[in-house]
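Probable membrane transporter protein
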Amino acid sequence: MTLADFLPKDVSLTIAMALCAVAFVSGTARGFSGFGSALIFMPLASSIAAPRLVAALLLVIDFVAAAPLLPDAWRKADRKATAVIVLGALVGVPVGTYFLSVLDPVTTRWIISCFVAALLLLLLSGWRYRGKDHAWLSVGIGGLSGFCSGLAQTGGPPIVGYWLGRPIAPIVARANILLFFGASDFFSMVSYAATGLISRESLVLSLIVGPVYAIGVAFGASLFGRASERAFRAICYGLIAMAVITGLPVLDGILR
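C-alpha cells:
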C-alpha cells in the first residue's frame, strides 16, 4: 500500500503534495502572525483542486487545530457581546455554504479571488471600527464574516477588524474572536455536512494535509520573536497577494 492508494479518486499524489505545500506555507503564516492562513490557502488550493473539496478540507483541519483554544476563550470572553455577533453568523454561514454548493468551480474561484483581494485591502488599510457598539452592526459584521466563512473559510478580517477596534482589553478581544470562530466553524461543519461538502474524500485528505498544516503552525510559532512582526506581516500580505494572482482562473492556461 502506498500513499496514493489512500487518496480520493480525483486527487493525484502530485495534487496532494501541492496541497501539503500550500498548507505548510499558510500554517506558517497563521502560527507567526495569527492570521492569513485561509487567505493564502483558498486561492491557491482552489486552483489545484475543487473549491468545495478544499474549503471542507480547510474547515476540518482548522477546526481541529482551534478546538483546544476554546475552553480558555470561553472563560475570558465577553460571552454576551459575542453571542450577538454569532447570531449574524448563524444566518451568514448557511447562505455562504449554499453558494459554495451550487456555483460551478470557476465561478467560485473568481468569487474567492475577488473576496480575498478585498479582504487583503481591508487588512492593508489597518481599518478598525471605533464607533459606538450597535446590536444591528454586530449582527451585520457577524453575518458578513459568516458568509465569507461559509463560502470560502475567509471570515477573519471583518471580525478581527471589528473586535480589535473596540475599547476592551486585548485579552478579551482575542477570546471573543476565538469564541466567535469556534461557533462559526461549528455552524460551517453542520452546513457543510448537510450539503454533502463534508465527504469521505475531504476527511481522508485532511488526515494527510492536516499534520503538515500543524507543522507549519508550529514552525511559524517558533519564529515569533526571532523576526520583526511588521516584516513578517508584510511577507504575509505579499503571500496573500501572490495567492490571489496565482489563483485567478484567467491564468490557468499559463500557470497550469
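Residues 103 and 183 are 25 Å apart (CA to CA).
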